[in-house]
Amino acid sequence: MGLLDGKVAVITGAAQGIGFAIAERFAADGARVVIGDIDEAAATTAAEKLGGSAVATGVRCDVTSASDTDALLAAATERFGALDVLVNNAGITRDATMRTMTEEQFDQVIDVHLKGTWNGLRKASAIMRAQQRGAIVNISSLSGKVGMAGQTNYSAAKAGIVGMSKAAAKEMAHHGVRVNAIQPGLIRSAMTEAMPEHVWEGKMAEIPMQRPGEVAEVASVALFLASDLSSYMTGTVLEVTGGRFM
Ligand SMILES: NC(=O)c1ccc[n+]([C@@H]2O[C@H](COP(=O)([O-])OP(=O)(O)OC[C@H]3O[C@@H](n4cnc5c(N)ncnc54)[C@H](O)[C@@H]3O)[C@@H](O)[C@H]2O)c1
Questions:
Q1: Nearest residue to 212 via CA among 237, 185, 239
Q2: Which keywords annotate this record (predicted)?
């Protein structure tokens, strides 16, 4: 018995990294998954890796676009007949101190994280409200809790996702829809592997568990929030950080 047997989940930014690990974990627990990503070829390859069309489908979606988001969610109902879970995971970084950050870099990060999450959240909420059930998981970041130098754009967006999740949780609770957020810390992925070594080492020194997290360790918390194991939880923010900035 899988925790998501018979359920259909949409995960944004799931062609690689944390999103793909979530898709993999959900599929292993019985879900059929729709992998949304701005990189269409990578989304298709990711779906094939999960076992192909009976289990997964890849859809090109830029989360900043409301119409792309509509099409992504429609793929879940058209291909698999339902929408039970949405994970808003797609993300980018454009790190720079305020002295050098351009307005474009600020806007890009706010758009993908805040507007992108809002697009998924409001459109999935409309579908889930009609069926009176559903679970939404938003991927924030520890940067949104403590603020990181060089990330005024990203920290603001990730803190905004917390407020957005709580507001939506209050709007949707009596419709049977739960909305929760995850704040990962330093997780080994393409996003963090791009960091200069001295930045990586600085972050490592802050982690009581003295190691980075693995994408599978975020995926298992997403599974918990997506499944009935967390049936009485909404509006929460779970930290997956090895104890960093507790
Ligand atoms: N890796 C970490 O340490 C860490 C820590 C905290 C939070 N996060 C968050 O976790 C999420 C996943 O991060 P990751 O480390 O797996 O990153 P990643 O760069 O490996 O993957 C991000 C994915 O999002 C996709 N994407 C980017 N822009 C998109 C858009 N506009 N529309 C749709 N898809 C888009 C990319 O193509 C990619 O497949 C992000 O929201 C990130 O901010 C990561």
A1: 185
A2: Oxidoreductase
Does residue 89's CB lie within 6 angstroms of at least one atom of ligand 1? yes
Domains plus CATH for the chain? 8-236 (3.40.50.720)
Task: State pTM to two decimals.
Answer: 0.99
Give CA 142 to chain center in angstroms.
Answer: 14
Nearest CA, atom 23, ligand 1: 13
Q: How many residues does the chain have?
A: 246
Which residues of the chain fall short of a pLDDT of 70?
none
Q: Look at ligand 1, atom 3, and give the residue with the nearest C-alpha.
A: 187
Task: State the catalytic residues.
Answer: 154
pLDDT at 148: 96
Q: Are 188 and 100 in contact (CB under 8 A)?
A: no
How far, in Å, from the CA of 3 to the mean position of ligand 1?
25
63 within ligand 1 shell (Cβ under 6 A) = yes
Residue 91 CA to ligand 1 centre (angstroms) = 4
Identify the pLDDT of residue 18.
98
Break the chain down into helix, strand, coil percent, rounded to 5. Answer: 50, 15, 35
Radius of gyration, alpha carbons of the chain: 17
Q: What are phi and psi of 194, to 5 degrees?
A: -75, -10
